[in-house]
Protein: carbonic anhydrase
Organism: Psychroflexus lacisalsi
Amino acid sequence: MNRLLISISVLVLVLSCQDQPKKEKVETNDKSNHWSYEGETGPEHWAELEGETHCNGNFQSPINLVNYKVAEDLEPIDLHYSEKTILHDVANNGHSIQYDFERGDFLIHKEDTFHLKQFHFHEPAEHLIEGVRYPLEIHLVHQNESKEFVVLSVMAKEGNNSKPFELLESYLPIQKGEMKLIQRPFDISQNLPQNRGYFSYQGSLTTPPCSEKVTWIVFKQAIEVSLEQVELLKYLMPINNYRDEQPQHGRAVYSTSF
Ligand SMILES: [Zn+2]
């Protein structure tokens, strides 16, 4: 009789374990949650928080774009953006709202191909343009086969409602750790300013591991988005998800003549 009871209990236990609902949580970014934008895990502590970072290096980003040289030979960026490229998903990784692309869009820089991987937001902006901090900065992250980056930076100011932002924000809100599939074509060039003049310099990722292998291209002209569109992003991201200005350390900053 006892033996029968034990067998039944074991069976019940096994069955109840099998009934446990499976975890649906989306793992967005493995180690990336060790750091934050404030307190003991804030930017001053990034270098000590994770083993191999460049966060204390001499070629860090963002910077104040102020002491620049106008270079007549700087040409417009060689962009190959298509309206057919598929926007794969949007994710809230706890640091920013990020939209990920399938392979398609790319740019050519110094005869090398850099594929557009994703874009995300900082609010307010990280780079300063002649000391001015815009309310929003968009980073379009491109990478080549050697894992080097070209990041295009687009500043946004408050103004008219942006149609492309309407589409992007139709997938919001999205909670921390959540990812939503989009899987529809999106033309990223709609989010670029009309004037393609830019500043350029060598720097780093502005988040850990702060890798110093980034060519920064910051457009001079800002795009317009409405106050409501800025506010929706702000509500979903950590407050002030920007890193402070880093020392220039003698690096050259170039500006196009247009
Ligand atoms: Zn960024």
